[in-house]
Specification:
single chain, 144 residues, alpha+beta, Nuclear Transport Factor 2, Chain: A, 2 domains, five-stranded antiparallel beta sheet, two-stranded antiparallel sheet, 25% helix, 24% strand, disordered N terminus
Length: 144
């Protein structure tokens, strides 16, 4: 509560005293964190040197994966046609921190040039954390 009052006070002072940069920064802090302009990449949302293998173990894709479009899709409430997109992730592999059932949800990350859903997934926790896997839950990278 105190923090909100301080931020509101700073915002009012910035507007009254003509500091538009500070006012914009305070008012749009959430939007600044989501900047999606060319050349500006959010740290951690572009995963570099990803290797994705197909069901036969052949290298299907190598390069960077930009997770921003998938995260934006999920935040908009859009689902991928894959049956498990948005389903509860049960953490059977126990590679993520243990939480109560239903805490995690999984989402498909399409692999370029793959006709099926492929092995890439985002797993999101109810607390806002996001994990990425390129190998269908064998390994995870925490994104947020």
């Amino acid at each position: 509560m105190f923090t909100r009052i301080v931020i509101a006070g700073l915002l009012v002072c910035a507007v009254v005293f003509g500091y538009p940069y500070l006012a914009g920064m305070l008012a749009g802090a959430k939007d600044l964190a989501r900047t999606d302009t060319p050349g500006h990449r959010q740290p951690g949302l572009v995963v570099r040197d990803v290797r994705v293998y197909d069901l036969d173990g052949r290298l299907a894709y190598r390069g960077e994966i930009d997770l921003r479009p998938e995260i934006a899709r999920i935040e908009r409430g859009e689902s991928h046609p894959h049956a498990n997109d948005g389903a509860v992730f049960q953490n059977r592999e126990r590679r993520l921190p243990s939480r109560e059932p239903g805490y995690y949800r999984e989402y498909v990350v399409r692999t370029p040039n793959m006709r099926h859903a492929g092995p890439q997934r985002l797993v999101m926790g109810a607390g806002g954390e996001i994990y990425y896997t390129a190998d269908h839950y064998r390994t995870f990278r925490r994104i947020r």
